[in-house]
Amino acid sequence: MLIREVTDVNQQKLVALGEFLIGRAGDTGAKKSISIGAFVNMAQSMGINISAENNANQLRDLAEKPPLNNIIVNITDDQVIFAGANQSSGDTMTVDQAEKTVEKMAKRAAE
Fold first, then answer.
1. CB burial class (10 A; 0-12, 13-18, 19+) of residue 68?
2. Which residues contact 76 (CB under 8 A, 6 or more apart)?
3. Longest Cα separation, the chain
4. Distances from the Cα of 104 to the Cα of 91, 95, 98, 108, angstroms
5. Which pLDDT tens digit goes with each residue over 25-67?
6. Strand-pair category, 79-82 with 72-75
7. Where along the chain do its domains lie?
């Protein structure tokens, strides 16, 4: 029972780390991926025991199981790719659309 509790705590920490990185990437407009080395270093600094020799395989095993499978969608040879990494944001507009919107708003304000 004690081993399961430790595993659950580590999974919770990895989920929290993944959610933090997804949120941070969204806030800064960065890619929703990180190198395996950087991810493992962050996890180890949080007290999660991930072996240095077998990072990718160990992460792949963890990422296939809930709840991490909702956070990490793929692990390549050198990258951890998070949910939403391949989605384009639907709220972007072209320069022409922005200019038209500003023009309409200026006309409304002048009335």
1. middle
2. none
3. 71
4. 19, 14, 10, 6
5. 888 888 999 999 999 899 999 988 887 567 778 888 888 888 8
6. antiparallel
7. 2-110
Supply 98's token pair. Answer: 């922005």
Three-state DSSP at 78 gives coil
In tens, the pLDDT along 58-101 reads 888 888 888 889 999 998 888 999 987 665 444 566 777 778 88
What 8-state DSSP symbol labels residue 82? E
Which pLDDT score is estimated for 91? 54
- Residue matched to tokens 């692990």: 75
CA separation for the pair 17, 7 (Å, rounded): 15
- Two structure tokens written together for 67: 């709840």
